[in-house]
Amino acid sequence: MRIIGGEHRSRRLATVRGEIRPTTDRARECLFNVLGTSVVGSVWLDAFCGTGAVGIEALSRGAEFINFNDRSFAAVQLLKKNLELCGIEEGWEAQQKDVFTLLRNLKSSPLDFVFLDPPYIFKRHQKLLDRVRRLTCLKAETQVILETFKKTPIPSLPESLTLSRVVKVGDNQLLFLRPRLKVNS
Question: Which residues pair with 172 in a beta bridge?
């Protein structure tokens, strides 16, 4: 596994076998091709960071700040090792929390991207998206990106989120969601 583009391009990342399933190089390349230059100067929440590959890729491509989170101690340690391998000392914070606890208590500057890549066995996508829509740090332009196994049905979306794009890549699908604009009467 390696960083695809930007300042840290071609850097190899450490991985482990077992519970951590990193977003593949191909899926990350597709994701960042879709996002393009909107990554520059952006603020992210990577709520299931695992190895940190997506957030590190974002930092490599000019993101300003990544809030990394994973409930696994091993994943957070692996993330920190990968940040060190890339020589990234600032522009990030790492937390070890259950995702629902994180989202309930998140204090953040406005987010440009919320990246959600739960384990394939995760069964609470609707609850997850419902919790995300309640975040006070979302903006009208925030993109919520949910990565799932390609055969996982698209969850029912809260009224305040709209599906703007679905991209299938390998065994995965990337769902691009946006907050629905509120119309003032």
Answer: 149, 169
Residue-wise pLDDT tens digits, 70-116: 999 999 999 999 999 999 999 999 999 999 999 999 988 899 999 99
Q: Does residue 30 contact residue 167 with C-beta atoms inside 8 Å? A: yes
2 token code pair = 């390696």
Structure tokens at 160: 């305040």
First to last CA, the chain: 50
Write out the DSSP string of 72-96: -HHHHHHHHHHHHHTT--SSEEEE-
94 neighbors 79 (Cβ within 8 angstroms) = yes
Model pLDDT, residue 159? 85
* Coarse DSSP helix, strand, coil percentages of the chain, rounded to the nearest 5 percent: 30, 25, 45
pLDDT of 183 > 50? The answer is no
3-state SS, residue 67: strand
Tokens of 128: 């997850």
Structural domains in the chain, CATH included, are: 25-179 (3.40.50.150)
The Cα 109–Cα 43 span in angstroms is: 8
